[in-house]
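Onboarding guide, step 5: your first structure request.
Type a short instruction followed by the sequence, for example:

Predict the 3D structure of this protein.
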Amino acid sequence: MQDKQNVTPRIMIGAPNGRSGKTMVSVGLCALLHKNGLSVQPFKKGPDYIDASWLTAASGKACRNLDAYLMSKDVMISNFCKSSLGNDFALIEGNMGLYDGFDGGEEGSSAHLARVLKTPVVLVVNAARMTRSIAALIKGYMDFEAGTNVTGVILNNVAGPRHEKKLSDAVERYCKIPVLGCIPRNQALAIHERHLGLVPFQEASSGTIGIERILRTIEKHLDIESLISIAKSAQGLPISHSTTQQRPKVSVRIGVMMDHAFHFYYPENLEALEQEGAELVLIDAIHDDKLEAIDGLYIGGGFPELYMSKLQLNETLRVQIATSIEDGLPVYAECGGLIYLCDRIVIDGVPYTGVGAIPSSVEFFTKPQAHGYSKLEVKYENPFYPVGMQIYGHEFHYSRLTCAKGLHCALELTRGQGIDGKMDGIVYRNVFASYTHIHASGTSSWAKSFVSVASRNKGIGKSAFEQESPREVGHG
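The system replies with structure tokens like these:
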């Protein structure tokens, strides 16, 4: 019997370099197709949370991240098939330049992902100050790596009708692929930016208006029918024979900080917790004045530094969290969550008070303190990971911790910055707090461990983990 095939129409939106306009085009396409009644499943290549938030808002469906560093090739294919199956259209937004991979190689590039998923690529090119030369650039991208199927191009920052004609004539003459659209130069189409890249949709005060403006531009200037035709040319992907696991009965309640300050969560992480039997309880760290009855707490990343005055004002919740931690509440905190749990957070010279469970001071800087993928080994006992396990994650932050003496970490870095360049994963009672973000698709034991420690803690009110000499931060 022949394997089933996923034949969902799909394209990858790639570019020669960052800031070419691929996020704007991807958001506009998702919004337009959604408006026209199509079910669109968006994906973001790489670990980025922010572009994903815009794609989620534009499509009405949770964007999924596909990352060859954080998960295996088979898992990427499986995740893509599972999420895209049954939809009318799948759009994958690439990142950086089309051929930019890990450490100078092809693996991990947008082109590599397009080949793995047998997906045609539409290239978005910033055409400012170019005419005939654009054909040489596009031709180079078409021919650079065998098997990369660059099937169309969208030209951005086009000055006017004469410029458009010169560009289109050159591409069609020398590259023999269609120009699917020419987007005029328009600063109003830019999505707000900040130090980590784009501003998350949740924080953009005019986010919905911005998406509508981009939608109208895409609708006017893109040949949507030709683009859909290209998407339909994608080859089928074999669907793996995976057994559907029955979700167990709810055994624990895990709180998830979900508000303007904390909203960096992969959908798969939350789904994995539910699959293991957790009921997720959403908590607003800014407005909720009471910590609900929970057996565990997950504090993801975000931008707590922008809301620190409001987080500080909510003293009632901070004190309840600190007290619950002393009573043994399991807490998993990533980046922004780690920062929130500290004693003192200094932003532009102004000190703020955090939860205080971690005796450390955090200071923010104008330049990145860490940016990129990380690789870590679990060296010491902790509530969430077995000793000896390898963890692959990523980090991107502008802050640095000064840890109190006696604070311990469980993870040793072989790549990345972590807390002090050597260690990450601060352990205190049932708290595990790190700068590293993980993806549940590549760290499969994480959710099971979280639910397990939450279950052991349920109603106990004391530490479910006896600390066994993890390494002190800053000490060998």
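Each response can be followed by summary notes, for example: The chain has two domains: 5-238, 252-472.
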